[in-house]
Design goal:
The structure holds two protein chains of two kinds.
Chain A (H helix, E strand, L loop, with lengths): L3 E4 L2 E4 L5 E7 L5 E8 L3 E10 L2 E4 L6 E3 L9 E3 L8 E8 L10 E2 L3 E5 L1
Parallel strand pairs in A: 2-11
Antiparallel strand pairs in A: 1-3, 3-8, 4-5, 4-9, 5-6, 7-8, 9-10, 9-11
Chain B lengths: L2 E5 L2 E5 L4 E8 L5 E7 L5 E7 L5 E3 L5 E5 L4 E6 L8 E8 L10 E2 L3 E6 L1
Parallel strand pairs in B: 2-11
Antiparallel strand pairs in B: 1-3, 3-8, 4-5, 4-9, 6-7, 7-8, 9-10, 9-11
Classes of the chains: A mainly beta, B mainly beta.
Chain lengths: 115, 116
């Protein structure tokens, strides 16, 4: 079955440590996205990538970094510079717009807790 | 610029009652509109999408939404609520017309509670 996997489901880290969240898709989508979700805030875009080896900052990129070395993979690193990293992180992918805009498909999410 | 407002962060209905979740958008060009559903501690699942074809869009699980340009609205409805509909619902908008910026903008979500 095609889809998006995120691992792990739950992640715990101590303050000051960098942590990398995994996102893999087998939908053959060119575009991938990372969102952060906080209660009552909706989804906020962190980074997105339209093609391998290229990515753009979203609305809240400070304290985060990404890479896109393979089409299938788009890992997110939460650095120690992120002031409030505890949140639910969602990865998504979509076809690149052509004749229209295509929906985004979401992974199951990773809940990160930093203490 | 594109934006979406969901009226009501929490909606409570009785089982069997009509579900109405409100979404208004702001866009300078005809938008693409989406409704997603999220169950606790899970990702988002697409319910339905409007892409400038029919203004009444039918989705999964008996949901539908009507695009009303004059009201800049895309409200989500279901005639009869089921306990399994309890979840958080997100409206999203995209106004892509070429170029590299085709991100979705999401509303803050509406939590639907279904009472027995």
């Amino acid at each position: 079955d095609g889809g998006i996997t995120q691992s792990p489901k739950y992640l715990f880290r101590k303050e000051g440590q960098n942590v990398t969240l995994s996102c893999e898709q087998n939908l053959n989508h060119d575009a991938m996205y990372w969102y952060r979700q906080d209660p009552g805030q909706g989804l906020r875009l962190i980074y997105y990538s339209q093609i391998v080896n290229d990515f753009q900052k979203g609305d809240i990129a400070e304290g985060y970094s990404v890479s896109r070395e393979k089409k299938e993979s788009f890992p997110l690193t939460v650095t120690s510079a992120q002031k409030n990293p505890t949140a639910f992180y969602l990865c998504a992918s979509s076809m690149t717009p052509g004749q229209g805009v295509y929906e985004q498909y979401f992974g199951p999410g990773t809940r990160l807790t930093v203490t | 610029a594109q934006s979406v407002t969901q009226l009501g962060s929490h909606v409570s209905v009785s089982e069997g009652a009509l579900v109405l979740l409100r979404c208004n958008y702001s866009s300078s060009v005809p938008p693409y509109l989406f409704w997603y559903v999220q169950y606790p501690n899970q990702g988002l699942q697409l319910l339905l999408k409007y892409t400038s074809a029919a203004t009444l869009v039918k989705g999964i699980n008996g949901f539908e939404a009507e695009f009303k340009k004059s009201e800049t609205s895309f409200h989500l409805t279901k005639p009869s609520a089921h306990m399994s509909d309890a979840a958080e619902y997100f409206c999203a908008v995209n106004t892509w017309r070429g170029g590299s910026n085709y991100k979705l903008t999401f509303g803050k979500g509406t939590l639907l509670t279904v009472n027995p």
